[in-house]
Design a protein that fits this description.
The protein is of the alpha/beta class. The protein contains 6 helices and 7 strands. It has one domain: 3-Layer(aba) Sandwich (Alpha/beta knot).
Length: about 210
């Protein structure tokens, strides 16, 4: 990755994120070459999943919904960790297709268009707690998300979800809740879409217990 370190502390960098923020966890083999085209993300740590997740989280209707997404990329084995911050400063107003979100992600990896921090995942989760976020780790087999009835009235929520694998175990230690949307395995984009529909339902006066 050609990402650069941002100035200021990581907690300061994360201080102005919106009420609903997503954190996608992705792994990447060390020293893997950045693809030339967006379609190459499928062989680049399966970051094509992250690109689809970005589209589902921030553009559920094709128009930017005002949320933010943190893409945490872990190379493992003592390698670099980087978190790309996709917020309104580096996002278009509309986006409908996977090739658009994939190209946006590739540009962020290549050109540093979006803010980047190199803090550890634990540090990021601690900072988000300090900023008042309820941190919810989404994981297969956990208690149903809809049973967490009180969270929907909270001002800030951070949803944490893996792309091709769950975040490491220490992420659960920094989560306020570990939850799932059901008893089966679901695609990352399906989980995100379900939650966005639930948030929209509540905003429109729907039943918070559904």
């Amino acid at each position: 990755m050609n990402a650069h370190r941002m100035g200021g502390s990581v907690c300061t960098v994360l201080s102005s994120l919106p009420r609903i923020t997503w954190l996608l966890y992705a792994t990447l083999p060390p020293a893997q070459q950045l693809p030339r085209r967006w379609s190459g993300l499928v062989n680049y740590g399966r970051l094509d999943i992250a690109a689809r997740g970005l589209l589902a989280a921030l553009y559920p209707t094709g128009r930017y919904n005002g949320s933010a997404l943190l893409l945490h990329i872990d190379t493992g084995g003592g390698g670099e960790q980087a978190t790309i911050i996709f917020n309104k400063q580096c996002l278009p107003e509309t986006m409908h297709y996977e090739h658009e979100s994939s190209q946006l992600l590739l540009n962020a990896l290549r050109k540093n268009k979006c803010p980047v921090t190199h803090a550890t995942l634990s540090r990021i989760l601690i900072c988000m707690k300090q900023h008042g976020y309820t941190r919810i780790l989404l994981k297969e087999g956990a208690k149903p998300l809809h049973t967490l009835k009180k969270i929907w009235g909270r001002e800030k929520i951070l949803f944490i979800i893996g792309t091709r694998e769950d975040p490491p175990i220490h992420a659960a230690h920094h989560a306020d809740h570990v939850a799932s949307i059901g008893c089966h395995a679901y695609l990352t984009t399906s989980v995100i879409s379900y939650i966005n529909l639930h948030i929209a339902s509540i905003a429109g006066g729907g039943d918070e217990e559904g």
